[in-house]
Design a protein that fits this description.
The chain is an alpha/beta fold and 179 residues long. The chain contains four helices and eight strands; from the N terminus they run ααβββαβαββββ. The chain has helices spanning 2-45, 50-53, 92-95, 108-115; strands at 55-61, 71-74, 79-86, 100-102, 132-135, 144-150, 156-161, 173-178. It binds copper (II) ion. One of its GO terms (molecular function) is electron transfer activity.
Length: 179
């Protein structure tokens, strides 16, 4: 009998805890909701700024010459804010990273071949600028850059890559998939 009372007490206690916990997270959600509401309001009030913020996508690059994300899915025309973060330690001159989004159907090999010799423009060749939709700066260790743009209106797969010499060849690439 004692045991039953005890387990009941434990259950009751747990229930109270749960309720308490639930209440807390509810009020937490509510207060953050309240905080978000005015922000949303002001964003719609200044509609010109809305596309500039967009959905945030963060990609990390490191000394293994890989992007942490190799596929980004987006809706046609969706506002995106892509951040590249170089979390590596190797100096920029030997291990710089950038994020270059190419136009649909761009000749990637041709672009990469030109990029190799475009150190002066951070490996984004001026002669192939017409193949590029958007690109970040070339980043050294612990540097970050963000580019904001709208996903293309035409559905399909758009290659992105790091144009630092040799990086694309070892797999520093991915695709923006527009649906
Ligand atoms: Cu790279």
């Amino acid at each position: 009998m004692k045991n039953i009372v005890r387990s009941f007490a434990v259950t009751l206690c747990a229930a109270v805890l749960l309720a308490g916990c639930g209440k807390k997270s509810d009020s937490g959600a509510q207060s953050s909701g309240d905080a978000a509401a005015p922000a949303g309001k002001s964003a719609s009030a200044t509609s010109a700024e809305t596309p500039a913020s967009g959905r945030s996508v963060e990609i990390k690059a490191d000394d293994t010459m890989k992007f942490s994300l190799t596929e980004i899915r987006a809706k046609r025309g969706e506002a995106l804010s892509v951040t590249l973060r170089n979390v590596g330690n190797t100096p920029k001159f030997s291990m710089g990273h950038n994020w270059v989004l190419l136009k649909k159907g761009a000749n990637v090999d041709e672009f990469i071949n030109e990029a190799m010799n475009a150190a002066a423009t951070d490996y984004v060749p001026a002669s192939k600028q017409d193949m590029v939709l958007r690109h970040t700066k070339l980043l050294g260790p612990k540097e970050v850059d963000t580019v904001t743009f709208n996903a293309p209106a035409e559905p399909g797969r758009y290659v992105f890559l790091c144009s630092f010499p040799g990086h694309y060849q070892v797999g520093m690439k991915g695709e923006l998939v527009v649906e």
